[in-house]
Amino acid sequence: MFWRAMITWEATWRPPCTKQFSSKPTPPHASSLVLFSPFWTLRTETRLSSRRSSMTSSNGTSLDLRLAECDILNVFDGVQFLPLDRTTFLRSQCFVNLVEATFPTVSHSLLLYDSNLVWSGLNPEDVQVVYRYVCNSLLPKHLKANYLAKSAGSNARLSRFVTGPDCLVDMVYSDKTPKVYLDKIQRPGFFHLIVYKVQDLVICLFLPKNKDPLRLELYRQLDAFLYERMSELITEIKSYKKSTPEPPEAPDTRYVYFNTMNLATKDSLRERKGNPSSDALVRALVRLHNHNVNLSKEGCLSSETFMRMSTDHWVIGRMSNFRQFYIAVERKKLSLQEVDDVAKRICENKLKGIFFHV
């Protein structure tokens, strides 16, 4: 079943802080589940202080969400993937496999480059929440701590470990590695989360939690093993990205792609936010997404919708094969055929076969 329509919508601008979305992002309890454990485990904690500490930590994870800045990307809450050629991707995968083979205590791994996912051994739902936790919380705090250390002229905090020891020469070490709860694996449970960063490349290592804390010697071995290999991999990734530059984007078009199967997102939405016209388009994208959600509930899995706004701008929504693609065209006096041509051109340039045209 295929559905195609054109809609004219009267857009009224409101301040960004009043934006409301009927589609909800991943609920806060999903973060709590991965970062702390299911809520039912609180019943097993006999001490009131332990329960209070768990609930306080759980609520704190949702405070990083700035509601006034939310848009359709927060509705999807997806993961940005790094596009690589087969050779570079396989070398990245071999690197992760080598890490897990050299350190048998590592059960799962996740590799990021410039906040884009390169490789993961986790279920997409676990990746979704861990990705948000690492990119939105751990990495910004680590960057700030290193910046303050440099400003103060101190090298004590300039560590490549985002989580773990501040310094590898500490005589007295207390394990501060966060513990996360992975739910979508064969044996759900708590894991130590070690995050190690070299330039823009980040590897997340998950080690089963046991009674004994992680020892400083393990971090020293990881640092000696990872640094040079990650530096080599960075060179390869940069070389590939330099050889395949992104085609230039028209300044008056923006797009959002979302794959509901692996939660992958790709977009150019947040590059030009802040003016009334752009904010109205962002709300139009959310409205169009809600329209597609309703179509899906009625059994229509493929659709194409063109929305013409009172500002004479266009918003296009396409849905097919569990993939969604939205385009905002801030260009006036375009015919329906011209807008359709713009949408097809963006599909060809940006998605390169990963989106099946409806």
From TrEMBL:
Q: Which residues form the CCZ1/INTU second Longin domain?
A: 106-229
GO cellular component terms?
Answer: Mon1-Ccz1 complex
Cross-referenced Pfam families: Intu_longin_2, Intu_longin_3
Domain CCZ1/INTU/HPS4 third Longin, first and last residues per copy? 250-346
Q: Which GO terms describe its biological process?
A: vesicle-mediated transport
What's the superkingdom here? Answer: Eukaryota
- What's the name of the protein? Vacuolar fusion protein CCZ1
